[in-house]
Amino acid sequence: MADFQGKYNGEQIEQLLDKANDIDLSKYALKTDNAPTATKLQAARTIALSGAVSGSVSSDFGSNITISTTLANFDASKITSGTINIDRLPKAALERMVVVADDAARFKLTTATAQVGDTVKVTATNKMYLVKDDSKLNTEAGYEPYTAGQASSVPWSGVTGKPSTFAPPMSSATVLGGIKVGYPTSGRNYKVQLDSSGNAYVNVPWTDNNTTYNEATADTLGLVKIGYVSNGKNYAVLLANGKMYVNVPWTDSNTTYTQATSDNLGLVKIGYSANGKNYPVALDGNGKMYVNVPWTDTNTTYTNMGAATASVAGKAGLVPAPAAGAQAKYLRGDGTWQTPPNTTYSNMGGATSSAAGSAGLVPAPAAGKQTSFLRGDGTWVVPTNTTYGLASTTANGLLRQLNGSTSSFMRGDGTWATPPNTTYAVANESTNGLMAAADKKTMNRLIGVNTVTTLAHLPISKRSITVTLSAATTLSVQSGMQVGEELMIRCVPSAAFTQAIPNSGDYVSMSGTSITTTANKPFEINIWCYASGKYSIAVKEQD
Hints:
This protein has 543 residues and is mainly beta. Helix content is 5%, strand content 20%. The protein is built from four helices and 27 strands. A hairpin with a 5-residue loop joins β12 and β13 (289-291).
């Protein structure tokens, strides 16, 4: 190429280039040589960008090219000029003030309007909150209220617009505030005063009373000593922090109750359905029992009494109101207030042997008649002799004088005598006598019936027992059955269940170890004491 350029000047080369289509340049230059200008590259080349901006393009550059780029791992510290639009920044990177009307609006905020670090102002309360958890914007847990810190120290002279005086609020039971002095003492209410230093005090006039106390008694308050040694159920008084107490050792006793019956205290259920005039027992909010009886007030408005006539009876009612001026009158049967007719009575009329006396006042006894009695003829006289003789077999009379003996009795002949021996022995099979207590107890057991709701600890005071069962229970009897005694027990189950029959220890079952009951189908149990503390059991269900 150097030889070629040496033979032609620039103008000649330009002429030759104009005829380039007619020249085979391969005869004059090598393919590896550089051309000063070209319309495109003989071989395509790839341009690649790396770093914060990446992208590449492959071209022979015969025309303009565009490189598609991607921004990645951009270092924001490299930005030294220009303005970034706020919309380009993440909302969480900004501390913003969000203003809402009230707390209800605050709890409706979402992360679209408020995020961690934002401040929320509530107009209704003038309170401000820092958003500390934007997943709980609908509760107080998402916010932290702003509190004012301590202000910097400011001299009083530097405070502008301060009042010359401060009027504190009036003090009350709930408000700290000012008070006035000048109250006039009234009874035991004493005034508050101020000393020369402005300190408040109350001057209460009082006199020391003797506060020396004697030992306390059942009737008098006084002093006591501690140190008593517990004796039986008398327990010592102790002190704790100067306060007196008594430590009473006790043990909970069994408080398991069965269903209540007409004879036994016990438990009851609620839930009864009203039936006619039988109303259910219910519980109030404090667990107290009551019965709600529906009833309607009947008319309790009464009219005045109905007057009686000569032929018609009156009617019950209110007493008619007496008119003014009738204060000395009386209510008559015809319902009017009247003055009674003359009720002045004369003395009684005395009876004679042939004529009856007449009603009247008792005649006044004269002085000296204090031992006299009113006789049927209307006079006060001393009764005739009323001295009686001793009673006899033919005549009434007085009882013979007592002889002072506590073992003598009045006999039919009128004399005091000691009865023959009336001490009787207990009757046996050959001799009459008194009934033994054990025999009376056995006799009483044959009459009557005990009613229970469980087969446990069956009572033995009656030979017959009726049992209402709602579920299976244990089966046992109270102690004290005599050898040869038996219990006849009729059971009515309200449900089907399997009732165990004891067959070990003191009990021997003649009917297996259990019975499966049918609801409302009775079965009977016979328990016979065949030896002291030993029992034989037989069970039979109704066929």
